[in-house]
Design brief:
Layout (H helix, E strand, L loop, with lengths): L40 E3 L2 H9 L7 E4 L3 E2 L33 E3 L4 E3 L2 E3 L9 E4 L4 E3 L2 E8 L4 E3 L3 E4 L2 E3 L2 E7 L2 E4 L2 E4 L2 E3 L2 E7 L2 E4 L2 E5 L2 E3 L2 E2 L2 E4 L2 E5 L2 E5 L3 E3 L2 E2 L3 E3 L3 E5 L2 E5 L2 E3 L2 E2 L3 E3 L4 E4 L2 E9 L2 E2 L3 E2 L5 E4 L2 E10 L2 E3 H4 L8 E3 L7 H6 L16 E2 L8 E2 L21 E3 L2 H6 L8 E4 L3 E2 L10 E4 L2 E10 L2 E3 L2 E3 L2 E4 L4 E14 L1 E4 L2 E4 L2 E3 L2 E8 L12 E4 L2 E4 L2 E3 L2 E8 L4 E4 L2 E4 L2 E3 L2 E8 L8 E2 L2 E4 L2 E3 L2 E3 L13 E3 L1 H4 L14 E2 L8 E2 L10
Parallel strand pairs: 1-2, 2-4, 3-5, 4-8, 5-9, 6-9, 7-11, 8-12, 9-13, 10-14, 11-15, 12-16, 13-17, 14-18, 15-19, 16-20, 17-21, 17-22, 18-23, 19-24, 20-25, 21-26, 22-27, 23-28, 24-29, 25-30, 26-31, 27-32, 28-33, 29-34, 30-34, 31-35, 32-36, 33-37, 34-38, 35-39, 39-40, 43-44, 44-47, 45-47, ...
Antiparallel strand pairs: 41-42, 69-70
Length: 684
């Protein structure tokens, strides 16, 4: 059995023509199980593993590996695969045409060895061709894989294209492809968490040591030692070739080298092309080198058009004749912002960068430098309580504690399952969530006071688990940063937050600013938020998707928000924000909510993209209201129903709301309150 990737205190959270599928094999009888979530099919042999891909009816079932499996083509019965083993593409058109995997595959800590796939004209070559929404692949190690599709796209040892969730997986492989090629994953549209990779990857466009292209996805707590190679190309990076749209990379590092011959663009030690989204608390130490006629090379990022914070690089960066935009940290920056970032001018061989601060090797190893820049360091709480960074005992550059065997995080009570969630009582508990299972269950057991702390980013930058506030409140939350700011930076598609309050919060930043969440892809129910938000975005570029966003509860809602409200002050200095008292933009569903927020652009009346409830809407808004009129409140842009202050205090206004179990109201005295707030009308 393999030594699993280091996971600290982790737990499990709460008709196509068959002849066109992979070479038909009779379905093997599994070693046990029924394929149900609580009784998965048990996989013990190569035939059993391969049989999953021969029957599309199995692709939504649940599986667990119970032994190492060797797929060496030189063994008796061995083979070289010409398509993905599971969920293959069937027509090589470029778009996926097949049945995707939507079940669960638990590696159980075991290994799949010597996987060999070769087909120069095919796409989606990997163990799993396409893992779609609801798919989970976890705790699996792939050793010594060889995947080759010289003209193919979406190639990786584990998953060709990921639309589900990959947790605690590891791959060592040699992967060769053309576009969206990574050692672990070719193209990611969802979540890759606590994963590692090693080996090498060769490609042309969007090539990375862990993932080729990260598009609207999240790569969290990951690392790679794999090298990235190309004779010529665009967007090659030590961890990810391209980070696009609103994708997030956080708490991750790359140590492999990036090398390209001539006529290449956008090469970075961590990410080749940052074309939107953000990179937070990461580093790169490998070299980045190009031949003649190359452009945009950086020790961390080649071309940056997004937000980078609290990162560093130490690798040498070089290019040949007629090359341009070579930087120690960032080669070229066409938008976004770089804050709290550094590079080593001695080891990189460069004094120039399109962002960040150059330091000597000695300065790069001084804790005081990073504390002054607001990094969340161990044994201090002024910059946050996540304890993300530390100085190695033996000396050297800052280390990410999430990847350190020597670091012992702040301990949380509980085991992270629905019947025994991790308990949060203090600000230190809140920060510790970053070191635990981000897909687990959590509960507040007391109000959490964050006074005295100025966070440089969301206390929990990305979350896909469940958090029950249990009627408790997070108070005095102070955040000053760039993007995706709130108690949560991003709530992932499977996240669920309920019965939680935010009070006396103050959030300042550039984009995606909310009191509860910068962006919600999951579900928020029965929550409230009170405080102030100030945005100072100065441009509307590709990183802002047509404009920045501010919302009293969440800046961007792509999931569901129900039975919740927000009150406070929302201010922006420039007319580049979508602003709403509850949500800046809505692409999801908002039901039975209200907002009572004052909205202004530097003291001016809001523009058309601002409203009392929602700034811009592309989703559904049901039975929701906002304060409007001479008594204050937001502008009426036709999104939600405007009500005067007097009507906002009347039960009759909120038809269809549940005032028995969810809401309560002190008639004529106050706006509706959530039942769990236990308001005494006699005290008003």
């Amino acid at each position: 059995m393999m030594t699993q990737p280091r996971v600290r205190a982790r737990s499990t959270a709460c008709v196509l023509c068959f002849c066109l599928l992979m070479d038909a094999l009779p379905a093997a009888e599994f070693a046990g199980g029924t394929g149900a979530p609580n009784d998965p099919y048990q996989i013990a042999t190569a035939d059993q593993l391969v049989s999953i891909g021969s029957d599309p009816n199995l692709l939504d079932k649940h599986f667990v590996l119970i032994a190492d499996i060797d797929l060496d083509p030189n063994l008796p019965g061995g083979r070289v695969f010409t398509q993905a083993v599971i969920a293959p593409d069937v027509n090589d058109s470029g778009s996926f045409d097949g049945v995707p995997f939507t079940g669960t595959f638990d590696g159980g800590g075991y290994r799949i060895l010597n996987l060999t796939i070769r087909n120069n004209a095919a796409h989606y070559l990997s163990l799993f061709g396409y893992a779609a929404r609801d798919a989970v692949v976890k705790d699996l190690r792939i050793d010594d894989a060889r995947v080759s599709g010289e003209a193919g796209m979406c190639l990786g040892a584990l998953v060709g294209r990921n639309g589900g969730r990959i947790l605690r997986c590891y791959a060592t492989a040699h992967v060769l492809g053309h576009k969206s090629v990574g050692i672990l994953v070719g193209l990611n549209n969802s979540e890759i968490i606590d994963c590692r990779a090693g080996g090498e990857v060769v490609g042309v466009i969007a090539v990375g040591g862990l993932v080729g292209g990260n598009y609207s996805g999240a790569v969290l707590n990951c690392c790679t030692t794999g090298d990235v190679w190309a004779t010529m190309g665009d967007c090659l990076g030590g961890l990810a070739g391209r980070n696009d749209y609103d994708a997030v990379i956080a708490h991750s590092y790359a140590m492999g080298d990036v090398f390209v011959g001539t006529d290449a663009n956008n090469l970075g030690g961590l990410v080749g092309g940052l074309v939107g989204g953000s990179i937070n608390d990461c580093y790169a130490s490998g070299s980045v080198s190009g031949g003649d006629h190359c452009s945009s090379l950086g020790g961390l990022v080649g071309n940056a058009d997004g937000y980078i914070s609290d990162c560093y690089s130490t690798g040498r960066v070089s290019a040949g004749e007629s090359s341009a935009d070579i930087g120690g940290l960032v080669g070229c920056r066409t938008g976004g912002e770089v804050t709290g970032c550094f590079w080593d001018v001695e080891t990189s061989g460069l004094l120039r960068s399109a962002g960040g601060t150059g330091l000597t090797t000695a300065q790069m190893q001084e804790t005081s430098v990073f504390l002054a820049a607001g990094w969340d360091w161990v044994d201090e709480r002024a910059n946050g309580t996540a304890d993300l960074w530390s100085a190695p005992e033996e000396g050297g550059y800052p280390a990410l504690t999430i990847h350190s065997d020597a670091f012992e995080p702040h301990e949380l009570e509980g085991s992270g399952v629905p019947d025994d969630p991790y308990r949060i009582v203090t600000a230190e508990d809140l920060g510790a969530v970053n070191h635990y299972d981000l897909a687990a269950c959590y509960r507040l057991d007391a109000d959490v006071d964050c006074g005295g702390i100025t966070w440089g980013k969301a206390p929990i930058p990305y979350f896909v688990g469940q958090l029950d506030g249990d009627g408790r409140v997070v108070t005095n939350l102070e955040i000053q940063g760039s993007t995706y700011l709130g108690l949560f930076g991003v709530l992932g598609r499977n996240a669920f937050v309920v019965n939680l309050g935010i009070r006396d919060a103050n959030v300042t930043g550039r984009d995606a600013l909310g009191l509860l969440a910068g962006r919600n892809k999951g579900s928020i129910r029965a929550c409230r938020a009170a405080g102030s938000i100030s945005g100072d975005s100065f441009i509307a570029d590709s990183t802002t998707q047509g404009g920045s966003s501010i919302g009293g509860l969440t800046a961007q809602n792509d999931g569901s928000v129900s039975d919740s409200y927000a009150v406070g002050d929302l201010t922006a200095e420039f007319f580049t924000f979508d602003m709403g008292g509850l949500a800046g933009s809505n692409n999801g569903v908002i039901s039975r909510c209200y907002a009572a927020a004052r909205i202004s652009y530097g003291g001016l009346f809001p523009a058309n993209c601002a409203g009392g409830l929602v700034g811009v809407n592309r989703g559904d808004i049901n039975d929701s209201y906002f304060l409007f009129g001479a008594d204050g409140g937001g502008a009426d842009n036709g999104l939600g129903s405007p009500r005067t202050e007097a009507r906002m205090k009347q039960h009759a206004t909120f038809a269809g709301w549940d005032f028995e179990a969810v809401w309560t109201i002190c008639e004529g005295k106050d706006y509706p309150r959530l039942k769990w707030e236990a308001i005494d009308c006699n005290q008003l």
